[in-house]
Amino acid sequence: MTNSEQTSVLITGGNKGLGLEAARRLGEQGWTIFLGSRDQGRGRAAADRLTAGGANVIMVPLDVTSEESVTAAVRRVREHTDRLDVLINNAGASGNGVAPADATADEVHSVYDTNVYGPIRVTHAFLPLLRAAKNPRVVMVSSGAGSMTVVTDPDQPVSKMHELAYSSSKYALNMITVRYAQALPEIKFNIATPGEIAARKFAATDMNNHTGQLTVTEGTDSIVKLAMIDADGPTGIFIDRNGPAPW
């Protein structure tokens, strides 16, 4: 069993990018890190690197598109703790950037399976462990592309990103998070975007071929901030690293 006083966090998509950096930063705070990874080899390698740096890390095989995998992940976490303080739904899919005229339902569905249904699967499965914590928090990793204000602003680069799957999936994730927050006030449900919306900047990750202007550490500022809020903190909010993000 882990130390009963040690804060625990499960991070989906934790083997690289924003997920791995959030794991590193929270591991430095002395948290127990359950590092979720669809690719077990990469997950073990990432966990080994963090462990070598002094973090307490347990690798959890986790494919958020699979009910069977999510159920097994709950069993794995329960082997180490009787509660989960924080869940970070970070795993995401960008889709293929298919133009709206060419997009099919299958294309959109594949992205929704990770970006929308995935967080629902994982959140639902881990609710009992979250409810067992004193100050449970859920952080949904969204995007400025999930903001109607941003997408309809011609000065924002994402307004010219003509696709259906990714932006609409993040918009849906934002709504889902708000509805969770309203229905489950005993758990903090909040949304982070890794970018700086006003500055029109985004974090450099594999998803954008590392073309972003922000470092992966800067990109996790909003995620880490929401993961660390106290019992008097907000719920149902959407932020970037500089503060409130527009809906």
Structural summary, described in words:
There is one protein chain. With 247 residues, the chain is of the alpha/beta class. The chain has helices spanning 17-28, 40-52, 67-78, 105-115, 117-131, 148-151, 165-183, 216-219, 221-227, and strands at residues 8-11, 32-37, 56-61, 86-89, 137-141, 188-192, 238-240, 243-244. The longest helix is centred in the last third of the chain and has 19 residues, at 165-183. The model has no long low-confidence stretch (mean pLDDT 94).
User: Strand-residue fraction?
Assistant: 5-15%
Series of H and E elements: EHEHEHEHHEHHEHHEE
Percent range for helical residues?
Answer: 25-40%
Please give the order of strands in the largest beta sheet.
3-2-1-4-5-6-7-8
Shape from CA axes? globular
Q: Please mark out the parts with pLDDT under 50 across 5 or more consecutive residues, or reply none.
A: none
* H/I helix tally: 9
* N- to C-terminal distance: 41 Å
What gyration radius follows from the Cα positions, in whole Å?
A: 17 Å
The total count of strands amounts to 8
What composes the largest sheet?
8 strands, mixed
SSE order and pairing:
Layout: E1 8-11, H1 17-28, E2 32-37, H2 40-52, E3 56-61, H3 67-78, E4 86-89, H4 105-115, H5 117-131, E5 137-141, H6 148-151, H7 165-183, E6 188-192, H8 216-219, H9 221-227, E7 238-240, E8 243-244
Parallel strand pairs: 1-2, 1-4, 2-3, 4-5, 5-6, 6-7
Antiparallel strand pairs: 7-8
